[in-house]
Amino acid sequence: xxxxxxxFTLMVMAxxxxxxxxxxxxxxxxxxxxxHGWSDLGILGIQKDLxxxxxxxxxRSGVVARSGYSTAPQCVPSRAGLLAGRFQxxxxxxxxxxxxxxxxxxxxxxxxxxxxxxxxxxxxKWHLGPAHEITRHGFTHVFxxxxxxxxxxxxxxxxxxxxxxxLPPAAYHIDACSQAAAAVIDRHKDQPFFLYIxxxxxxxxxxxxxxxxxRFPGEMPERRRAALGMIAAMDDGVGLITGTLKxxxxxxxxxxxxxxxxxxxxxxxxxxxxxxxxxxxxxxxxNTPLNGEKGMLSEGGMRVPFVIAWPGxxxxxxxxxxxxxxxxxxxxxxxxxxxxxSEDSITNRIYGDLDGVNLLPYLTGENKAPPHNALYWRxxxxxxxxxxxxxLLRGGDREYLYDLANDREEKHNLAAxxxxxxxxxxxxxKTWADGLNPPGMxxxxxxxxxxxxxxxxxxxxxxxxQAEKPAPAASATDGWEARNGKxxxxxxLFILTPENSAxxxxxxxxxxxxxxxxxxxxxxxxxxxxxxxxxWRLDGxxxxxxxxxxxxxxxxxxxxxxxxxxxxxxGRVIHVRVxxxxxxxxFQEIELKAGTR
Length: 597
Description:
Elements: H1 2-15, E1 27-33, H2 53-60, E2 63-65, E3 68-69, H3 75-84, H4 101-104, H5 109-115, E4 119-124, E5 141-143, E6 151-155, E7 161-167, H6 173-187, E8 193-198, H7 210-213, H8 222-247, E9 254-260, H9 299-302, E10 306-309, E11 318-320, E12 324-325, H10 328-336, H11 346-350, H12 360-363, E13 375-379, E14 382-387, E15 390-395, E16 398-403, H13 419-433, H14 448-459, E17 481-483, E18 485-490, E19 493-498, E20 506-509, E21 514-515, E22 518-526, E23 530-538, E24 549-554, E25 557-567, E26 572-579, E27 585-594
Parallel strand pairs: 1-8, 1-9, 2-11, 3-12, 4-5, 4-8
Antiparallel strand pairs: 2-10, 6-7, 9-10, 13-14, 14-15, 15-16, 17-20, 18-19, 19-27, 20-26, 21-26, 22-25, 22-27, 23-24, 23-26
Helix pairs in contact: 2-8, 6-8
């Protein structure tokens, strides 16, 4: 067959007849939002206080995927999965605390498009390693502003090249990313391009300018008003970018995805705490009526805003009910740049190593079947499978079976009523999870935080708000002390404030009698990125030995990050230290347990 095609091509060329033109490669834009609740999508008509005319127009021009899912209920793993097009636990990126070595070995679909002649650009939140290294992952242009602080960029806000270095903010970060993206479209309008626009919104800190919050007058929680303002800024950005496409006649040449990275963090009680006093609290977004929130594999943590548009190719006005995944973005993008009928096309050469599905035949109506036989997830101690309308959800030793066709709120556990379905789905989930790195349906027991969340959302138990729990006195730091800094207790948290920037800061606790092995669970927030370490001294040791030290990575993020470390000893631990990179920290939990294997 190949010889015949080659002979035919040579005959056509010799005859002077023109060769049939190959279809033009479409442009690709992926909007990726941050902690954006499923129901905060105006076209769904659920939350009446939203004002998102541009996003609603985009949705009307294409498809609203009502069962669109992220790959994880947390930032880092969901972004790794999206860009690699492979489930992130296949290459060891399980959570925000995972090392990124596995991701660094992946070929992102940005790199695949770059190799196919695309101009590629990243805007906003990266969260997958140092921002000045983004270019190694397939992005030619970088504009990584996600706050009002200096950020890594190798282009100016008007899309012109500059050396990669820190750039001071010249505009609100959401507006700046939208403006820079529009400038890159202007610059590359005559060649195919891929823009990855990862707004840090409505993730905390809730920093919407007053002009955006003023669009939402009236009685409401201030955190909700601020979230609506950030969503409005994103909506303006969608309008600017789609308007720029229209200006250049590129609307029907551009495939657009708009997807959230995970559900909104509600912190169970949606406390309307001061915007400048709780950067890690409720972000003001909503998942209602879905159950659960960020950090859970329930629908509220995993089902996200999900819109696909390609006017002229994908019929508009669709509401698509079959489950789809953020993993499908890479597969669809790669499929769209090749001649899918050719056996030696780009699609067939590199498509097989991706976990997602090319959605185009399903969204155009060519294929009426569901794109996936089943979707699978694992995140730390949780795992889940959705097959059709059945969903099996596991958290630690707990197991739940839901019929999402009749119970999308996940209120009725049917595991006891349909044990045969639960058994079948559990077997499929186990087979899939055994192929992950490391294998298994769970990586350990559930942390106390997520047990509380499961108790509240899935068991209906009352969880006391943090503010109502007895707070320790200002000096009650449970025996922990700071070195080269000050450790204080406030509202149930330990606050570490450095006092001498020239010396490393750490916290320490002595007079312990913990029989090994000892498990340490540390939940904290920090303004520093770098290497931390847990060090220990055994009974009989006169000092801390270099061998008695467990390093772990810290990232500067407003999210709480949990590190679970095991001290590999059978001796008695009498003294521990937690060493941190330069900068302060807040500790929500520092728990040491003896004899945990």
